[in-house]
Amino acid sequence: MNANAVLDICLQAMIVAAKLAAPVLVTALVVGLAISLLQSITQLQEATLSFVPKAAAVAVALIVCGHWMISEMVTFTNDLFAKIPSLLGGL
């Protein structure tokens, strides 16, 4: 196994991690921005008002995207296991 193979695996792992984190993070960002805008307009500064809707929206995003996230991780893991013989030098 050489340095290029290690870097390739690390790059693929970071891409998969970013793809898996994106739905949750974007959902939290959009809902947080909307709640912050609502709080600024109404001048109602309550901490739970921003936390509860974000938590609920993230839960919905996980329910909606959960199957896709699991299938992406399974695909990445299967590809990684399939590469093991070539990484070890054909043993």
TrEMBL record:
InterPro entries in the record: Bac_export_3, FliQ
Localization of this protein: Cell membrane; Bacterial flagellum basal body
Membrane-crossing segments per the record: 20-39, 51-70
Lipid bilayer topology: Multi-pass membrane protein
Signal peptide annotation: none
Pfam families: Bac_export_3 (PF01313)
Protein keywords: Bacterial flagellum, Cell membrane, Cell projection, Cilium, Flagellum, Membrane, Transmembrane, Transmembrane helix
Transmembrane listed as a keyword: yes
Protein's job: Role in flagellar biosynthesis.
Family in the record: Belongs to the FliQ/MopD/SpaQ family.
Name of the protein: Flagellar biosynthetic protein FliQ
Naturally occurring in which organism (per UniProt): Arthrobacter humicola
Gene that this sequence comes from: fliQ
